[in-house]
Fold:
Amino acid sequence: MISLPLLPLPYGAVLPAGMLRIEIVAFTLAVLTFLTSPSLRALRSAAVPILALLGVAILGLLQLLPLPASLASLLSPESAAVYRGTNTVLRLFGVQPQNLRISIAPSDTLQMVLLTVSDVALFTSSLLLLRLRSRRRLFVSVVMLGSLIHIIYGAIHDDPQERMHGAFVNPNHLAGYLEIALSVAFAILWREVLLSRARGEGIGDIGTRLEKRIPPLAAAAILWGAIAIGIGLTRSRGGIGAATITTAVLLTLGITQLLRGRRRRTVATALLATTAAVAFAAATAGHEFLVRFLSSDPREVGADTRLQLWKTSLIAWQHFPLFGSGLGSFREAFRPYQGRELEGLVEQAHSDPLQLLVTGGAVGAFLGILVFGSLLWKMGALWAENPRREDSAILLGGLGAALSLLLHGVAEFNFSIPAIPATLAIVLGCAFAAAGDDSIPIPIRQSGGARLAIVEAHSIPQRTSRVHDRAPDGLGLAKNV
Structure:
């Protein structure tokens, strides 16, 4: 986990050495985790997304299986036609014909299978290793430090007149990477919002209360603002738009929960802290990035070009409708249908859903929907039910990270950059770990009064804990049981 800031080096780990490093780290960490973990029951909370993501890897393996000609023609007629044409040419040169498969680029599909399994390994390892709050706090600190390092590196290394890309080739991908950190920073800010009232309780002097409450809130707001500035410097339309929508969604969810708990003073604190964070980012970055965001940039893929890419991608998918052309084989699947209006070699669809549809077919698209649908639904449910302020904030941050990349992925290919899904997998594992941490005392109401008592979760009978786990968390915790 400490090596997390190194994952994007170099170029977002798109080179073979970078992908190999992620796979070695992921599989080594998984082996050590599963050998030392006393119980795997914690994985049950994330069983659906884990199995769905493994399903994507299994689909890739099925695409690699040698098939009889009749079965290959039945499952993927276009793939069978590609192999028959290739084998005809190979025979002319006396080369041994290839076995028919669904994947038209087997080596690329194998690499995507390994990366997918490595993401599963990182997610499950993070979920099991970060069940202690002290470890989660260290991990969050590493995420924040790593994101700031990448922003500083990009600011120093890149031409100030150009869009900042840092350790990535494409500025849009740096924005995608920072979107994960921005959601984690929002979790830190939200934690300080939820804890601000408790910090001032029992102190009579208003000046002392403010002194206890304001500095942590200000520090969290500045941290969020600094990462928001980094996204702004990339001038990524998709990144800025996704980050803005996600922040609005997270703030709305948080305020709605506070209003249900009748914590109106905390709502005011949340609005003030968020406004201060946005104002800090805007005042520091100035209006230049907004002007460039709204203006056209000839170096980017234009709107008309993107539409043409998407239309042609749909045409390619129609030739590989059910099982796709093979994970990682978009370039080969797209090339036969590329029109004259699209110049150069097209390697990405500039849309994660469309790219999965072409390479994984309807089966792959269904599994992708199941992965993200189950992740968002489960994290939302766990967040709504979690009474611990710090842990619920981490869940909200994980929800935001997944939502932001999902929104940005509509018009970008962040999930084709290995460092980004690997980082997201670890952050989401941390969020699920916070939801399943039963070593932290939870607040329950005493039957004889309005004070809250601290009771160890494992000491509460199963039926009782289910009733009291939903006790409101905002009145402060009693120091004595």
Residues 444-481 have pLDDT under 50 and may be disordered.
